[in-house]
Amino acid sequence: MEPPGLDRCLILQTRVPERGTFMAFSMAGGGTPRAQINVTPLIDVLLTLIVMFMLVVSMDKQYQEKVQIPEPPKDGKSDPQPERTVVIQVVWTAKDQTPTVKINRDEVRWEDLETRLGRIYLTRVEKVAFVRGDADVDFQYVAEVIDVAHHAGVQRIGLLTQDRMVEGE
């Protein structure tokens, strides 16, 4: 005999009927045991393989840095290092006269400027020069110095102001 109100009680309606019909999902602990894969050793092997591949790639010559380290001369004597910074000064002399040119305080004739700069920058890796013109010098002379420096092999040219001093001046 069924208790009264069974048709209205939702909890009792969701229980498995006694006729042997099962629900669509299984409860924990019930059913036949299945074989399960142990994933821990598989992950260990994968991590080991990743580390091995990283080591192999890091030893590959294609991915190494290419560095050129200067070596000392074989005779043991080193050449004196040239001044690193080259400053070309265009100095005003007098009105209606061509200004004089100096490379690191050494006076140079206008005709010799390109050959002198070519000799300086022939062996240098860093081809940078600085140009300083006096306030009274026409810019055409500064522009001419820049053009000559480019023809002599200087790749980068910086313009200096009067209040800025550079090492080597």
Give your account of this protein's structure.
The protein is an alpha/beta fold and 169 residues long. It has a domain at 87-160: Nucleotidyltransferase, domain 5 (2-Layer Sandwich). Helices cover 27% and strands 14% of the residues. It contains 4 helices and 5 strands; from the N terminus they run ααβββαβαβ. The protein has a 5-stranded mixed β-sheet with strand order 3-2-1-4-5, with helices on one face. It starts with 9 loop residues before the first helix and ends in a 9-residue tail after the last strand.
Q: What composes the largest sheet? A: 5 strands, mixed
Q: Percentage of helical residues?
A: 25-40%
According to DSSP, the number of beta strands is 5
How big is the Rg?
Answer: 43 Å
User: Strand fraction band?
Assistant: 5-15%
Could you state the oligomeric state of the chains shown?
A: single chain
CATH class of the domain at 87-160: Alpha Beta
CATH-derived topology of the domain at 87-160: Nucleotidyltransferase, domain 5
Look at the structure and give the mean pLDDT. Answer: 77
- Give the strand line-up of the largest sheet: 3-2-1-4-5
Q: What string, H for helix and E for strand, traces the elements in order?
A: HHEEEHEHE
User: How would you sum up the global shape?
Assistant: elongated
Q: Spans of 5+ residues with little confidence (pLDDT < 50)?
A: none
Count of helical stretches? 4
User: SS-based structural class?
Assistant: alpha/beta
